[in-house]
Amino acid sequence: MLEKIGRLIDTDVLVVGAGAGGLWAALSAKRHLPDGRVTLLDAHMVGRTGHTAFSNAWMVVVTPDDDLDACVRDIVEGNEWVAEQELIRDILSVSHFQLLELEKMGLVFPKENRRFIRRPTRGLKVTKVLKPDGGGLEYCWRLRKALEAEGVDLVERVFITDLARDDGGRVTGALGVDGRTGEFVIVRAGATVLATNSVTFRAGFVRDLTGTGTQLAYDAGAVLTNAEFGYLRPGTPKFYFEGITFAIQDGARFVNAQGEPFMERYEPDWADRADVQALSKAMVREKKAGRTPLYLDMSLIPEEERGQYLQSSVAWMDYFFRKLGDRARIDMFGKTEYYPLFQMTKLGIKTDAACRSSVPGLLAAGLAQASCASHFAGFHIGACNGTGWIAGRSAADDARRLGAPRVSEGNARSVEAETLAGWRDGDEKIDDELLRALQTLIFPYEVSVLKHESRLRRALAELDAIEERGARSRAAHVHGFVRLRETRCMVETARLMLEASLMRRESRMSHMREDYPDRDDEAWLNWILIEKENGGRRLWTEPIATPLVPPPASDVQPDR
Amino acid sequence: MIIDIDLEKCTSCGECDPVCPADIIHMEEQGGRQVPVLKHVEHCVTCFNCEIFCPVQCIDVHPIVRRRPLPW
Ligand SMILES: Cc1cc2nc3c(=O)[nH]c(=O)nc-3n(C[C@H](O)[C@H](O)[C@H](O)COP(=O)(O)OP(=O)(O)OC[C@H]3O[C@@H](n4cnc5c(N)ncnc54)[C@H](O)[C@@H]3O)c2cc1C
Ligand code: SF4
Ligand code: SF4
């Protein structure tokens, strides 16, 4: 009797993670399976958490007036071809419908002459973005209200530790704990969508929040990809500055220790208006040339324009600046050192264009799904919206098609025993120590930003000790247990990131190899795929399919 | 980093506990009433949710974040 082992929840579709990806997956599953049970589960409060809630929620939307093919091409080219082309097209195709749905939920998108106010976004040529009043918090809350109205069950404060699988290998739900009481929870589900975001190494501010779904999928046998790519952005540890784009439009520039603007040297066309990754790469080159510290010189911004940078439409950033008071003005417009900061990995679950993973019953949405390797400002949420809708639709189909799910008692019992032992007589500080060791290993630019074979190998060797210590550790309470599980996921992710980075012998987007500085389309229009194998892992390459946007080489006409 | 809750102003409504995405604020019985108790404050992500959603503005989050290793 599963009920005797823990709290048992039965559902047709389970969605884990209530950010943009999960909120949309749950709504879509319910719309496609109106008589079925759909459950949205999160480790925290639905509508108030995830990166989504703390974002501006700028989103890519393709309206009927836009050229869809041109937008697909834009995103694929912006990704230097590391993109699932058909999925990108399908994401963009539903984006306008989703925008209208959000409006129906009461979310307000500013308009002028009855048309949405949209603007271009860094690094994309034709694709436009827009954002709702109230940013991510309002976006998440409106979606939560819609889910409640449509009869989706919400389960909060449950942290998933394992996926359940039947004898045939199909995923049949998930197992976890109540993050407050430690109660063991079993969810039996016809289809399971992971929408838990990708992995951060707690990069600071709200990017201290991370997700473990990619690890859960990997442990259940799913194929992962994009481990070698990351999200880099220029930043300062003093405050989270979202307004760099606007500041640059108003005259701000990155300068080096000598006060020289340096972006034109590396990006003659875009200069400081280049994408955050290009800015980060240029910063590293200045560092190599011995011209640090680097600053964002805002001195050219007129006094009367400055106030707008010290406020934000995102509530938490606005509070931050207000509380900093005069300090904010001094830091922002004075000499504050900027760095290329590694924010998170792009490791995601590899799926088909219907968001199905390689394991039956398991789907992925949001940033836990590997749609592409760079999301620009606006295609993070854009991709989450679309993959959420698509994954929810496929999950509804799968729940119908795959029949009743089975969770074995033996499996549930052994996971429960392991879970409960995870916070018996453990160490209060172990998680913080492991995390610090991991950050000290990964954050140096010579490991995660500018890579080289010898340094990657050294980092891998050092990671072994951290991993070993993590595997032996137990927490002192359930809070520590959740943190420790998250840290272990980070350690495993770091390993995949280092190994895939060693394998990709070229430089492409955020993956920058000092020993292979050029992009190599001939050899590397490939995914690096990863799956668990015999206690270890297998990494291999597969060509990236290009059914819609031909590979770059074919743009060059052969000389006849 | 969350710094202070003014328990004299606090009405014990409990709003701040669930909105915390880092599990820092726990409503607990103290002196015959439910009060918000801070735990593991070093894991606060400085998201201001508790302060934003407290109906009587008795929470003070400071704009301080823990330093982490820099790239150089
Ligand atoms: C400050 C900031 C501003 C941003 N602004 C923009 C922007 O304007 N436009 C844009 O496109 N992008 C923006 N982004 C990026 C964007 O917010 C994210 O990429 C996107 O929200 C990710 O959504 P998601 O659904 O994949 O994950 P999330 O929103 O992070 O949701 C994942 C959820 O999964 C839960 N979870 C994870 N693991 C488990 C588990 N094991 N058990 C239970 N629950 C779990 C988490 O609690 C979380 O709620 C911004 C990001 C930040 C930090
Ligand atoms: S600021 Fe955010 S993370 Fe910190 S205690 Fe308040 S709600 Fe929790
Ligand atoms: S939200 Fe404010 S008033 Fe309500 S319990 Fe928390 S601190 Fe007290």
Task: Offer a few descriptive terms.
heterodimer, A: about 550 residues, alpha+beta, FAD/NAD(P)-binding domain, Flavocytochrome C3, Chain A, domain 1, four-stranded antiparallel sheet, 20 helices, about 20% strand, disordered C terminus, B: about 70 residues, Alpha-Beta Plaits, two-stranded antiparallel sheet, 2 helices, 4 strands, about 25% strand, elongated, binds flavin-adenine dinucleotide, binds iron/sulfur cluster
Fold and architecture overview:
The complex is a heterodimer of chains A (560) and B (72). Chain A is globular. Helix content of chain A is 40%, strand content 19%. Chain A is an alpha+beta fold and 560 residues long. In chain A, strands 1, 2, 8, 9, 10, 11 and 18 form a seven-stranded mixed beta sheet that branches. Chain A has three domains: 10-229 and 346-414, FAD/NAD(P)-binding domain (3-Layer(bba) Sandwich), CATH 3.50.50.60; 233-343, Alpha-Beta Complex (Flavocytochrome C3, Chain A, domain 1); 423-503, no CATH class. Chain B has helices spanning 16-19, 49-53; strands spanning 2-5, 25-30, 33-38, 59-61. Chain B has one domain (2-61): Alpha-Beta Plaits (2-Layer Sandwich), CATH 3.30.70.20. Chain B is 12% helix and 26% strand. The longest helix of chain B has 5 residues, at 49-53. Chain B starts with a strand and ends in an 11-residue tail after the last strand. The chains are: A alpha+beta (560), B alpha+beta (72). The interface between A and B is large, with 45 and 29 residues. The complex binds flavin-adenine dinucleotide and iron/sulfur cluster (SF4) (2 copies). Residues 2, 19-22, 24-25, 44-50, 61 of chain B line the site of one iron/sulfur cluster.
